[in-house]
TrEMBL record:
Gene3D superfamilies, per database record: P-loop containing nucleotide triphosphate hydrolases, Translation factors
SUPFAM superfamilies: EF-Tu/eEF-1alpha/eIF2-gamma C-terminal domain, P-loop containing nucleoside triphosphate hydrolases, Translation proteins
Originating organism: Ziziphus jujuba
Gene: LOC107418688
GTP-binding found in the keyword field: yes
Keywords (A to Z) from UniProt: GTP-binding, Methylation, Nucleotide-binding
Tr-type G domain boundaries: 43-269
Biased composition annotated in UniProt, kind: Basic and acidic residues: 1-11
Protein name: Uncharacterized protein LOC107418688 isoform X9
């Protein structure tokens, strides 16, 4: 059953670990101009976010991917094993590949989104390892908003699937957020299949799959087209680079993780659309460098662009993709772009690097269709409700200034009656106001820049899409 998968998903080792430092990305090797220039686009590029409840095994699985693709040597693993043991966290050593901060290693919990790269035959992947703990959902949102596809990691260990899946567990919250934030395809990996309470049990696997399917459907995923399940052990690396053998698991005849990742297809973005790159971070390095993912259009050295909403005219001095300087980059790429014509202090994350001919709209008010998930203490949702708006890289206080219509969730049509308030589960059209100008798009035109979440006191209370710009 192992078939030719090994050959098919041969990875390209670079000899050294490619996990970027997390202590902001400023510690990444300096952007030297003598880096070899390369033309990209030989392979497609996909951003994949690892999501799921705390301790499901996201960092372990991410670390194992790097190990299996030859990017972490045995000596480093031995060092991590020792370090993990010293911290009484023996089994955490694989997670240490992704969890690079001391705090993360001591607590055994990811805090900041880890970032790493690996390649298969057809695809260059950027892994974004999101934290599962509920305190760090804003970091998870920023990771998911950069992703094209998601790997939802679920622990099959007795009791752990249940806790993650409960109301208030992050399995649910992450799925809903991922969908809203534009993660169009999901691989659901049922992890810890090696655990003694699971032991590659088909029954347990089927139970998890059958409970997840209705929930994924209700979150808006087309389970037949956009979702694929598979069992793995992230810790042991089983069914990851090569298929699980018949002895460990006689019933699995599907693909291994690398094959599944390799074969995911997503709708190509338009490389000729107007340029849009939300800025997620910035720093000084021989000028001003901004970081972000290209959501539409292409960028070339020498381009004139606008930083919106402050309409600052800038020139593109250099473009870097991962560690490489490139002349041109298209949609989906995570870039660092060196700009002239603007100071670092004049940029805030959430600003958008944008085409001059068709700049992104900047507004302080917009209309949106919202799905209310769960209000704090079952509060009611009325005009005057305040929350924190997360839309692409923007985080901004907002106020609901007017409720316009309630939508019947069954018919998806507006209901006739006038509304003053709604409760959990309702779908409403409303007008939202922010204090500072933000750059957004209508969902129907640029889904990635038109979907958002509302959070209060650290909880996601609603997900929504922009229907009109006021
Ligand atoms: N038996 C077994 N244990 C696993 C497996 N994958 C992860 N674990 C263990 O689960 C614990 C949590 O793993 P992490 O990789 O840190 O989980 P995470 O999802 O990244 O957790 P957060 O970052 O805190 O959300 C560690 O003790 C791992 O060794 C697996 O495949 N099998
Ligand atoms: Mg983690």
């Amino acid at each position: 059953m192992v078939s030719d998968s090994k050959e098919k998903v041969e990875t390209h080792s670079t000899g050294s670990a490619q996990v970027d430092q997390k202590v902001k990305e400023k510690d990444i090797p300096p952007l030297e101009d003598d880096l070899e220039e390369m033309e990209l686009d030989r392979k497609r590029h996909l951003n994949v976010v690892f999501i799921g409840h705390v301790d499901a095994g996201k960092s372990t699985t991410g670390g194992q991917i790097l190990f299996l693709s030859g990017q972490v040597d045995d000596r480093t693993i031995q060092k991590y094993e020792k370090e993990a043991k010293d911290k009484s966290r023996e089994s955490w050593y694989m997670a240490y590949i992704m969890d690079t901060n001391e705090e993360e290693r001591v607590k055994g919990k990811t805090v900041e989104v880890g970032r790493a790269h690996f390649e298969t035959e057809t695809t260059r992947f950027t892994i974004l390892d999101a934290p599962g703990h509920k305190s760090y959902v804003p970091n998870m949102i920023s990771g998911a908003s950069q992703a094209d596809i998601g790997v939802l990691v679920i622990s099959a260990r007795k009791g752990e699937f249940e806790t993650g899946y409960e109301r208030g567990g992050q399995t649910r919250e992450h799925v809903q957020l991922a969908k809203t934030l534009g993660v169009s395809k999901l691989l659901v990996v049922v992890n810890k299949m090696d655990d003694p309470t699971v032991n590659w049990s088909k029954e347990r696997y089927d139970e998890i799959e059958s409970k997840m399917i209705p929930f994924l459907k209700s979150s808006g995923y087309n389970v037949k087209k956009d979702v694929q399940f598979l069992p793995i052990s992230g810790l042991l690396g089983t069914n990851m680079k090569t298929r699980v053998d018949n002895k460990s698991c006689p019933w699995w005849t599907g693909p291994c993780l690398f094959e599944a990742l390799d074969s995911i297809e997503i709708t190509p973005r338009d490389p000729n659309g107007p340029f849009r790159m939300p800025i997620i971070d910035k720093f000084k390095d021989m000028g001003t460098v901004v970081m972000g993912k290209v959501e539409s259009g292409s960028i070339c050295e020498g381009d004139s662009l606008l930083v919106m909403p402050n309409k600052a005219q800038v020139k593109v001095v250099a473009v870097y993709c991962d560690e490489d300087k490139v002349r041109r980059a298209g949609p989906g790429e995570n870039l660092r772009v060196r700009l002239s014509g603007i100071e670092e202090e004049d940029i805030i994350s959430g600003f958008v690097l944008s085409s001059v001919a068709k700049p992104i709209p900047a507004v302080t008010e917009f209309l949106a269709q919202l799905q209310i998930l769960e209000l704090l203490d079952n509060a009611i949702f009325t005009a005057g409700y305040k929350a924190v708006l997360h839309i692409h890289a923007v985080v901004e206080e907002c106020e609901i200034v007017e409720l316009l219509q309630q939508i019947d969730p069954r018919t998806r049509r507006p209901m006739k009656k006038k509304i003053l308030f709604v409760k959990n589960g309702a779908v409403v059209v409303c007008r939202i106001q922010v204090n500072n100008m933000i750059c957004i798009e209508k969902f129907s035109e640029f889904a990635q820049l038109g979907r958002f979440t509302l959070r209060t006191e650290g909880k996601t209370v609603a997900v929504g899409k922009v229907t009109d710009l006021a």
